Recover the amino acids of this structure.
C-alpha cells in the first residue's frame, strides 16, 4: 500500500470511527491537542488501525505516536516490515 | 432555618409518544399507543416481538457527533431530556460559575447501558478480548448519565444514581428533593431513563413471563387493569425534572410548575418479582408519602398508577390503593401512562411524575387506554380510554420495582 492510500484511509478512519471533523485532519494534527482524542480514543484508534490495515501495534510503539503523520509512518513501517 | 421547600421549574422528555414534553403530552391526552413491532433488531425468534420504541431519535440534535457515538442510547436519552429541562427552567451555568457548585444530578435507571453490555459481550465472544471497546465500561454503568450531564452542563454539586429497577427514577426525584431540603444543593437535575430494547433484555423479561406476547396486536398489548392483560410492554426513553429550592426559584422569577410535596418508600420484603399479596408494601409507601406531605388520602385528586398491565401488579396495586384511600379510592381517578408509553423501567417514575405535574398545570388527566373488560379485582375509576378534565391540586404517582422497592411521590399545585 502506498503512502497516499494510507493517508486517505487514515483520514476516513478518523472521521468514521472517532467522529472527528474531516476539516481538522492534517498530517501535522496532534491527536491530543488538536483533535481532542483522549486516552480512551487512543485505544479506539489503535483497534481501528489494526482492523483497517491488518497491522499490530504494540502499546510501547503506540505511545510514541503524537500526530496523524506519525501514525501513518508507523503503519507504513509495519506494512513494509 | 425555616424548612426548605422544593419546586419543579423545568421538564424534559424523550419517549415513545414524542420527542419533547408538549408533543408527548398531546399524544397522551389523545390516548395514543406508542407500541409497535420491534425495529431495533430482528425479533422474529422472540416470545415477545413488540415494544414501545422512540421513533427516529437523533442524538446529534443535542450532542456533538464525536461525543454521541461514545454513548449508550440510555445516556443519549437522558442527555436529551436534561437539555430540554434545563432550557425550560432557564438555568445555565458557565464553567466557573460558583452557583454551579450548588447544582447537582440524581439519575435513575434499572439497568443502565444494556445494549452496550450485550454488544460488548458479543464482541468479546466472537472476536476476542482485544476487540472489546475501551468505552465498554463507561457505556454500561448506569451512573454515567449523571456524570455526563454534569460535565456538559457544569453541575458540580451532589452527583449520584439510584438503581432500584422500575422505581429508580422515582427514587431519583425523591432523593434529589431531600438533597435540596437538607441544604446540600439549591438546584437538582432529577430523572432517569432506560434503553432496554435488545435481544438480551427482551429474552430475559420474556423468560420471567413478565411481558405481553400480544404480538399480533401491539397497540392493544399494554392494557393495565383490563381483565385480558397479559404482561407489560417494554418501553424506552427518559424524563428529567429540574428541582429547585423554592426561595431560589422565586428570587429569579422562575416559572414554577408544582411543588414536590411528599416522598414515601417501603420494601415488600417478600419476593424478587411478585408483589406482596394484598399490597401491604405498596400501601405503606403511599401512606408514607401522604404523611411526608401532611395530606390526607381524600386530598389527592389524581393517582398516576404504576399500572404495568401484569396480572399481579394491577390487582395488588388496586388493593393497596383501597387500603390507603378507603372509600375515597372509588372517587379518585387512577390512570396508567404505561398503557400508552409501555414500561420505561427505570425511566417510568420520572415520566409519570411529569404526567402528574402537567395534570396539575392543565387540569386534565390522561386516560388508561385499552380498558375494555373490567376485572373484578380491579374495580376503581381508571379513567378509561379518554382524558378527563379534573382540577388537580395534589397528584400521587406510584413506582414499584423488582426486588420489592416501593416508591410514592406527591406533587402539589404551587402557591
Amino acid at each position: 500500500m502506498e503512502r497516499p492510500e494510507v493517508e486517505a484511509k487514515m483520514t476516513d478512519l478518523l472521521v468514521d470511527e472517532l467522529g472527528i471533523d474531516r476539516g481538522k485532519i492534517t498530517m501535522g494534527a496532534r491527536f491530543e491537542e488538536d483533535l481532542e482524542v483522549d486516552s480512551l480514543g487512543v485505544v479506539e484508534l489503535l483497534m481501528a488501525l489494526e482492523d483497517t490495515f491488518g497491522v499490530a501495534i504494540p502499546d510501547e510503539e503506540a505511545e510514541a505516536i503524537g500526530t496523524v503523520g506519525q501514525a501513518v509512518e508507523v503503519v507504513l513501517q509495519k506494512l513494509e516490515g | 432555618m425555616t424548612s426548605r421547600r422544593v419546586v419543579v421549574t423545568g421538564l424534559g422528555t424523550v419517549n415513545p409518544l414524542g420527542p419533547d414534553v408538549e408533543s408527548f403530552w398531546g399524544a397522551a391526552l389523545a390516548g395514543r399507543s406508542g407500541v409497535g413491532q420491534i425495529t431495533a433488531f430482528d425479533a422474529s425468534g422472540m416470545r415477545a416481538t413488540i415494544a414501545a420504541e422512540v421513533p427516529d431519535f437523533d442524538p446529534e440534535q443535542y450532542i456533538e457527533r464525536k461525543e454521541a457515538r461514545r454513548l449508550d442510547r440510555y445516556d443519549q436519552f437522558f442527555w436529551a431530556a436534561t437539555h430540554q429541562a434545563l432550557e425550560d427552567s432557564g438555568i445555565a451555568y458557565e464553567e466557573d460559575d460558583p452557583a454551579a457548585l450548588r447544582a447537582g444530578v440524581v439519575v435513575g435507571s434499572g439497568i443502565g447501558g444494556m445494549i452496550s453490555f450485550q454488544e460488548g459481550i458479543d464482541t468479546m465472544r466472537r472476536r476476542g478480548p482485544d476487540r472489546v471497546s475501551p468505552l465498554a465500561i463507561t457505556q454500561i454503568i448506569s451512573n454515567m448519565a449523571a456524570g455526563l450531564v454534569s460535565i456538559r452542563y457544569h453541575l458540580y454539586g451532589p452527583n449520584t444514581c439510584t438503581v432500584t429497577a422500575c422505581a429508580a427514577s422515582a427514587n431519583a426525584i425523591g432523593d434529589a428533593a431531600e438533597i435540596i431540603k437538607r441544604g446540600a444543593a439549591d438546584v437538582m437535575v432529577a430523572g432517569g431513563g432506560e434503553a432496554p430494547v435488545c435481544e438480551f433484555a427482551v429474552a430475559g423479561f420474556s423468560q420471567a413471563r413478565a411481558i405481553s406476547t400480544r404480538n399480533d396486536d401491539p397497540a392493544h398489548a399494554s392494557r393495565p387493569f383490563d381483565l385480558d392483560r397479559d404482561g407489560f410492554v417494554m418501553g424506552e426513553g427518559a424524563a428529567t425534572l429540574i428541582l429547585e429550592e423554592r426561595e431560589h426559584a422565586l428570587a429569579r422569577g422562575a416559572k414554577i410548575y408544582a411543588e414536590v410535596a411528599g416522598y414515601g418508600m417501603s420494601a415488600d420484603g417478600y419476593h424478587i418479582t411478585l408483589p406482596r399479596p394484598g399490597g401491604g408494601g405498596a400501601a405503606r409507601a403511599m401512606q408514607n408519602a401522604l404523611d411526608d406531605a401532611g395530606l390526607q388520602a381524600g386530598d389527592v385528586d389524581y393517582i398516576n398508577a404504576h399500572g404495568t398491565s401484569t396480572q399481579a401488579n394491577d390487582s395488588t396495586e388496586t388493593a393497596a390503593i383501597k387500603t390507603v384511600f378507603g372509600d375515597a379510592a372509588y372517587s379518585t381517578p387512577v390512570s396508567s401512562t404505561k398503557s400508552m408509553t409501555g414500561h420505561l423501567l427505570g425511566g417510568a417514575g420520572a415520566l409519570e411524575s411529569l404526567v402528574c405535574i402537567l395534570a396539575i398545570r392543565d387540569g386534565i388527566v390522561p386516560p388508561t387506554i385499552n380498558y375494555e373488560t373490567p376485572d373484578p379485582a380491579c374495580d376503581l375509576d381508571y379513567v378509561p380510554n379518554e382524558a378527563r378534565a379534573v382540577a388537580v391540586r395534589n397528584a400521587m404517582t406510584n413506582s414499584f420495582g423488582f426486588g420489592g422497592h416501593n416508591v410514592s411521590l406527591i406533587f402539589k399545585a404551587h402557591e
